[in-house]
Amino acid sequence: MKDLPPECKDNLKKQIEAKCEGHVFQPELIGFTGCQLKCGNENDYIFMRMKSSQTIFLKDGTPCGHNKVCIGGRCVETCQMTFV
């Protein structure tokens, strides 16, 4: 994400936060790597600790670095994309 222009970076951050906050059971962003984000929640009850999470892939074609885009949850060189 460090190679993205500032306006793209800000927009991506807002969308990621909104995606997690909009989920009832996994409302917090707990991790972000390349083309995957993980939303989750952790609760401590008297006798048990509950954790839940979900992994969300960014859409194919989302910029993820210099000359790189997300494809199938991975950050790949732009020329590795399937064009046809």
UniProtKB/TrEMBL annotation:
The keyword Zinc does not apply. It comes from the Eukaryota. It is found in: Secreted. Gene3D superfamilies: 3.40.1620.60. The lineage of its organism: Eukaryota, Metazoa, Ecdysozoa, Arthropoda, Chelicerata. It holds the Pfam family Salp15. It comes from Ixodes ricinus (Common tick). Its main location: secreted. This is Putative ixostatin. Keywords: Glycoprotein, Secreted, Signal. GO terms for cellular component: extracellular region. The keyword Nucleus does not apply. Belongs to the salp15 family.
